[in-house]
Amino acid sequence: MSILNQLREGCFTIGVLHVPPFPTSVLGGERSLEEIVAHCVKNARVLEESGFSSVLLQNVGDEPVGRAASPDTVANMAVLAREVKKALSIPLGVTLLDHDGRAPIAIAKAAGADYVRIKVFCGLMVKMTGMLEGLYYDAVRYRREIGAGEVDILADVFDREGYPLGDTDLGEMARFAVQSCKADGLILTGKDQRGTEEMLETAGRATGAPLLIGGGVDAQNAGQLKGRAQGFIIGSCLKTPGGPYADLSPRACREVAEAFAKQ
């Protein structure tokens, strides 16, 4: 199910679930796959019951990761996403730490998920993990090859976790991502709120695609940001104390969802 119509209506809130380490991850995990599934299903339901528009799964616990997703990562994420999808009546997305354009599409197709987030979609980015080349060709071609046209691609432009190589203008890159590389929506995230707002303004002038903010959103700044983009990806502020894989706080989730629901 395409999320584009819902995105264009605005105030589309995406709650991120940081998936604990799988048993097969590089550093190993203490939880079994069954326990991880139960944890994510429980917290995904918290997001839906709080009024979020969508849930996004990210394999944060698999650090460190390689350039391409390993077969066990694809298998684990597909099983997890399938079970979470069955528990929800709202759209589900998938994103990987791994630099891979095909794997998230494959996972989404197998699980019945609705969209993927790809952080380095076009251009060249320098990150802590090295120089990363845009994945647009692999992602778009593979989506067509496996008949996954129903899976939308949300693409970051100049992801804040890295630096673009070259002097390409943000507006030019945003236009290229949509027109030539076939991104369905664009994710913009600056180093701070003002930087995010400036990026949204530039990308908005360059393209008519739905725009999403990829981070730095909470209940306090929702009122300032909700008119500037159509979608909002929200993660860390929703958690209870207790580490990166702690349960979500129902209260924090409700506060964010209600902040976006206010007229």
TrEMBL record:
Pfam families with a match to the protein in the record: BtpA
Domain of life (superkingdom): Bacteria
NCBIfam families, alphabetized: thylakoid_BtpA
Family statement: Belongs to the BtpA family.
Protein name per UniProt: BtpA/SgcQ family protein
Originating organism: Bittarella massiliensis
